[in-house]
Amino acid sequence: MPLARYLAFVGHARSQSWMNKLVLGVSLLLDYFLANRSCFEDSRDLFVAFAGALHSGTIGPDGIDPSGLYWFGRGESAVRGLLGPITALSDWLADRDGTRPLNPWRTATRGEEALAWAAWHQRRDRAFLGHTYSSSAAAVELRRARSVMLGRTPVVDRGATKIFPRERILDLLFAGFIVPGRQTSPRLEERLNVRDILITMLMHYGGVRVSEPFHLFVHDVAANPLHPDQALVRIYHPSSGAVPPDAGVPGLKQQPLNRQAYLRTRYGLLPRNLYSTTNQLHAGWKGNALEGGGNFFYVFWSSTWAAELFLKLWIYYMSTRSQLDCIHPFAFVTEKGDPYSLDTFMGQHAKAVERIGLIPAKVLGTTAHGHRHAYGQKLAKAKIGALVIKKAMHHRSLESQAIYTEPEYEQVQSMIEESLRRSDGNEPDRPNLADFGFHDFDPLGLLAKEENRFRRIANATTSQAR
Q1: C-alpha to C-alpha distance for 95 and 127, rounded to whole angstroms
Q2: Burial letters 294-315, b for 16+ CB under 10 A, else e
Q3: Angle 76-97/43-56 helices, nearest 10 degrees?
Q4: pTM
Q5: What backbone phi and psi angles, to 5 degrees, belong to 223?
Q6: Closest-CA residue to 303 (of 207, 226, 177)
Q7: Contacts of 326 by beta carbon, 8 Å cutoff, 6+ apart
Q8: Which value, in Å, is the radius of gyration of the alpha carbons in the chain?
Q9: Between 281 and which of 221, 246, 275, 285 could a Cys-Cys bridge form, CB atoms 3.0 to 4.6 Å apart?
């Protein structure tokens, strides 16, 4: 019950990942207590031993574990991720109920205080409001340390970043993501899994993280007003992002002000990052730098032809999605119309990699995250400035003064395109779909019809947004 009360208290301010670590940590602590309660008279001594058991494991050199837990050791980072939430719970219980904290503060050693000051100066120098940091307040705070602590994980040079092989990306898209049993069909819409191709293009040519496309609504892609043949993609914050044009809910006096309220009132759903990691609807979200006024970030294309092909494929995919019974706004769906799951896509990506003769492995760059690395490496090799890369990859920090000189959307996209034209790179040329056996991109005229309808809707949406 204390754990349940604490989760209710901090649920609005803590991420699902943090709360999962808290629940796991408390579960492990209870297991350790039940296995070793006769060995300790003081709860703090038990917590110290618990931290050591997490880090070093409970199995002796002889392979025997008297406690029966048989834990293997965990890395410093993983142990800190478990001890931190438990410590926060213990502090809250101490303040609320007067219990004795498991991991109380103590006076820091000179070495600990020196390291704490170094970390404080680094945070201040990188913070936008660093000039407001108070050294006198820090002097009081940094003189103390927790009773149970672990050293910081050493920085390790892990070698070159593993990227998806650029020379194989077209094979992955047009020979890997196929519909089983339709491998020889000359019609693109029959042979290819367009949904997974779109997601992969967002990662490889747009640099997005693998979980981010799963937050896209059908409203979030439009024709670029500056380049009508290219896609303009906005990925909104799952909870606080601006609501789409159809946000009005008949009968409600107070209309939804953000996407969390929109999903709840109109569809009875949560933002996908708020579902448990065991739920098929879960898709993570990392703190990205967002555009003000809507809480979204743009997708900046590393290839002009990719932006053009994405728009064509998106229009076709939206036409097929419209024929399904989709009681939700999420863009990517299953054959039944349900929101597409991240786990299922990861499995499909692995199968597509295997179909083109590669092995799906992180160390080879052939997992889904290798595409984002390939995007970043391509921009770097094109000698695009660090500030533009920061904006294109939606990182939140470079240096404190960088916030004043961040370019706008049009500047970033034009700078990327100009730099890429000057660089030779290793990117494949614009694909010739005939090489993959497609004789006509749109043999039935479906795309042309849907494209005209899509552009009318996109133009109306853009005018409304302006």
Answers
A1: 31
A2: ebbbbbbbbbbbbbbbbbbbbb
A3: 160
A4: 0.71
A5: -70, 135
A6: 207
A7: 333, 337
A8: 26
A9: 275
Q: Rounded to whole angstroms, how far apart are CA atoms 299 and 305?
A: 14
CA distance 387 to 400: 12
Q: Which residues contact 83 (CB under 8 A, 6 or more apart)?
A: 25, 51, 54, 103, 148, 150
Burial of 377 by CB count in 10 Å (0-12 exposed, 13-18 middle, 19+ buried)? middle
β partners of residue 107: 144
Backbone torsions φ then ψ of 304, nearest 5 degrees: -65, -45
Question: Each residue's pLDDT tens digit in the chain (466 positions)?
Answer: 999 999 999 888 888 888 899 999 999 999 999 998 888 888 888 888 898 889 888 888 888 888 899 998 888 888 888 999 999 999 999 999 888 888 887 787 877 777 777 776 777 766 656 667 777 777 777 777 777 765 554 444 444 558 899 899 999 999 999 998 888 888 887 899 999 999 999 999 999 999 999 999 999 999 999 999 999 999 999 999 999 988 877 777 778 889 999 999 889 999 999 898 889 999 999 878 888 888 999 999 999 999 999 999 999 999 999 999 999 999 999 999 999 999 999 999 999 999 999 999 988 889 999 999 889 888 888 888 888 888 888 887 665 334 444 566 777 888 888 888 777 656 777 888 888 887 777 766 777 777 787 877 777 666 655 5
Residue of 384, 354, 27, 56 whose CA lies nearest to 180: 354
Q: How far apart are CA 210 and CA 346, in angstroms?
A: 9
Query: Residue 217: beta bridge partners?
Result: 330
* CA 168 – CA 177 distance, rounded (Å): 13
If you search the block for the tokens 């880090």, which residue do you land on? Answer: 55
